[in-house]
Known about the structure:
360 residues; alpha/beta; Spore Coat Polysaccharide Biosynthesis Protein SpsA, Chain A; 2 domains; 14 helices; 16 strands; 34% helix; disordered N terminus
Amino acid sequence: MIExxxxxxxxxxxxxxxxxxxxxxxxxxxxxxxxxxxxDAALASLAAQTAPPTEVIVVDDASEDDTNARxxxxxxxxxLRLITFAERSGTWRARDTAISEATSELIVQLDxxxxxxxxxxxxxxxxxxxxxxLIAPNRMLLSSSSGGVPEPITERLPGPDEQLAQMLxxxxxxxxxxxxxxxxxxxxxxxxxxxxEDWDLWIRMSAAGALISRPEQATYxxxxxxxxxxxxVRRRETDPEIIQRFLDTCDDPAYRQVAxxxxxxxxxxxxxxxxxxxxxxxxxxxxxxxxxxxxxxEERGSTPRLLRITSSEGQAPxxxxxxxxxxxxTHCQIxxxxxxxxxxxxxxxxxxxxxxxxxx
Length: 360
């Protein structure tokens, strides 16, 4: 079982605790650094909510512009508390501090450069009332090419049985996700990360049994611009940190297999150098207890090198991908967990067995 994730959470059902029968208390938390260009629009969108938040907590991560002064002007309009860091501490610390200070039942996250449509708080809390867990926002995109008009974003929501597997392959939740403070505290909250601290949190919440759902109505506007943090990150270097943390605490064979595949896609042959290596007649052969035998062919002129995986030596490979000149996979079919269930012959049985043992 995934001991550090599922016990005692899976037994106490912390992840599915219902909210109070009356309208729940809601805290909107906003981390910001040098956000003067956008923070007024974000706070104005909170002032226009049809279901006003109980509290708004802004954490200013040592801004060097007039963000702090702009936020203070909204304290007469919103139930707003401003926390200011004297030294830069990172987005994960700002978010964790805001949630720790919140007294509300539910947490709504808002990035300082994004905007909420007027029904956002109402729609998200109503969705939580129907299905407690993680509520993903239905988002729209506002970019320089959209002419000032938000455009719909098509985001697939995996079924309950594949949500954790898909989360290990690639995060499908935006930062606007709503959750209970009780669940947040139960899984340990935000942790220090070089990037993608929200993905690290979603994995632990999903592993704890939190169901992920999404309302039909689009209420969150994600603003894309050159200074987005996510636009300036080298994910092949930062993502493995998140996946490896999961592997360090996971004993479930099926989910370990997915996590190792996720690392393989990001790291290619560089990731394989961490495996026990054995000699092969041609090329390189690696063994991993989660994946089986991984073969890397020799480089032969213009013919691309191939990476093949087989569950036991001598069998025909059931996973093949081309490698580029740097050793990264150029084509594979594991970007989607539903594809993985059909393209990886022994994974379906492995997954079902592992899920029944560890992911209740």
